[in-house]
Amino acid sequence: MNEKFPYGYDVDTYIDKAFEQMKEDFPWATRDMIAEQQYLGIAKVGGDYQYVRYYSMSDGMLSPRPMNVDSQEFIRRLASGHERALEHANPVKNYINVPASCRCRGDWFLEIYRIQKHEKGGYSAYVQAGNRSAGGSRTFFIPVSYLKLPWEEFLDKYLDLVSPGPFYVGRDDLEKAEGLKEFLGY
Q1: Is the CB of residue 110 less than 8 Å from the CB of residue 100?
Q2: Which of the two ends of the chain, N or C, has the fewest CB atoms closer than 10 A to its terminal CB?
Q3: Whole-angstrom distance, CA of residue 186 vs CA of residue 77
Q4: Distance, CA of 92 to CA of 116 (rounded, Å)
Q5: Contact (Cβ atoms closer than 8 angstroms) between residue 169 and residue 100
Q6: Is 4 helix (H, G, I), strand (E, B) or coil?
Q7: Nearest in space to 72 (alpha carbons), one of 13, 18, 143
Q8: CA–CA dist 179, 176 (Å, integer)
Q9: Hey, what's the torsion of the CAs at 13, 62, 2, 33, to 10 degrees?
Q10: E strands, 57-159, where?
Q11: How far apart are CA 38 and CA 41, in angstroms?
């Protein structure tokens, strides 16, 4: 073992560390959300161990490509990107719509902006926008640690997570949303 690989060369140890981090903010998460969905690993490349991302080749083989990261960034990457799995593991039980002061930009319209409460705990923001021929939606899980902050600090962190720029729901909209503070437990 060396400084670059403080937990050795077994990727399962790093997955365990990533899962510990994930559980802090998403208590309903399960370890298999990380283990089964990652194309990240540790492999010898050119005679040296490297953190790698595996790419699927046309023949079905996986090819490791080195990542220029340290152990903490590798663990962070293992723990991130599981929004869909988190969402499916914890269905919505209630929500509150947040009115927006500006609902369009060009030909794109904000169709839905709501804060959701989930069955197994936790909250998320759901945003849906589109135009006459295209659209999309996204769910942003709100880390549990954010909800332990005072309201003003929560808003700061939340707006970093769900930036008001593309969605046009800003601090004023959140502060004016009737019942939102109570819904979030403030």
Answers
A1: yes
A2: N
A3: 31
A4: 6
A5: yes
A6: coil
A7: 18
A8: 9
A9: -20
A10: 62-66, 92-97, 104-105, 108-118, 123-130, 135-142
A11: 8
